[in-house]
Design a protein that fits this description.
It holds the Pfam family V-set. By secondary structure, the protein is mostly beta strands. Helices cover 11% and strands 45% of the residues. The strands form 3 sheets. Strands 1, 3, 4, 5, 8, 9, 10, 12 and 13 form a 9-stranded mixed β-sheet that branches. It has a 4-stranded antiparallel β-sheet with strand order 11-14-15-16.
């Protein structure tokens, strides 16, 4: 009898913690580049995932991605989703449309607990040209898709999230660099670089970094690549270890 009461007491403590928000769960920011795979942590997970529901919100209403540990097959991207053994949400082949707010929610004995929110920021790159040659002008774009859709200036002020162009030596480029025309927008987190290519630009890297509090969170690199008579601009993404508790 005492053993059963002890188990009942443990269940009541867990339920109380989830319902009152005393579990110490904090919001998390995750940064990723398009085309990569990402794992969103569930910071309020219980001993198994049958009580776990994952919700996605970027518009007015939240959408269930996973309910009771089961993927909702009717959603468009269900084939790219999976649930980790720790109840984390795995998303393969990230696109810019995946940015937004994700919530890991627990249900205990039918009662809704607190949400552990994850804000997913997606860095996406594009180029005005794919095949390039010396003398050609190319515009490279780098945009951070974030939720909520506030201005980039607000992100800089509140979270110190910024975008930079970096040269091959790892030095931040500025508007004073004579070879490059660098522009940015304060309304959207986007930065562009326009450059007229030279012969010596072959295999040269141009990198776009997104930083938070001066730490690089995601990066995309453009490199001139030659194959026979063709020269193309290739894009590669760099992965960083997550240090995302805010």
């Amino acid at each position: 009898m005492a053993h059963k009461c002890h188990l009942c007491l443990l269940e009541l403590i867990v339920l109380s913690s989830l319902l009152t928000g005393t579990s110490g769960v904090t919001e998390t920011h995750v940064f990723i580049s398009s085309g990569q795979n990402v794992s969103l942590p569930c910071n309020n997970a219980l001993h198994d995932c049958t009580s776990t529901t994952w919700l996605y919100n970027r518009h007015s209403a939240a959408v269930e991605l996973i309910a009771g540990g089961i993927i909702m097959k009717q959603i468009k991207r269900h084939e790219r989703l999976s649930l980790g053994s720790d109840c984390s949400l795995n998303i393969n082949n990230i696109s810019k449309e995946d940015y937004g707010s994700y919530s890991c929610r627990q249900y205990v004995n039918g009662q809704q607990g607190t949400d552990a929110r994850v804000f997913l920021h997606v860095l996406h790159a594009s180029s005005s040209q794919t095949e390039i040659s010396a003398g050609l002008s190319v515009t490279l774009s780098c945009q951070l898709y974030s939720y909520p859709r506030v201005s980039c200036d607000d992100w800089i002020r509140s979270e110190r999230i910024e975008l930079f162009w970096v040269n091959q030596a790892g030095v931040n480029l500025t508007r004073s660099d004579s070879r490059y025309q660098i522009s940015s927008s304060s309304d959207h987190c986007i930065i562009t670089q326009s450059i007229t290519l030279l012969n010596e630009d072959h295999n040269r890297e141009r990198r776009c970094n997104v930083t938070q509090r001066d730490q690089v969170k995601a990066s995309v690199t453009y490199t001139d690549k030659s194959s026979g008579e063709k020269t193309s601009l290739s894009v590669s993404y760099e992965e960083f270890l997550l240090d995302v508790q805010i």
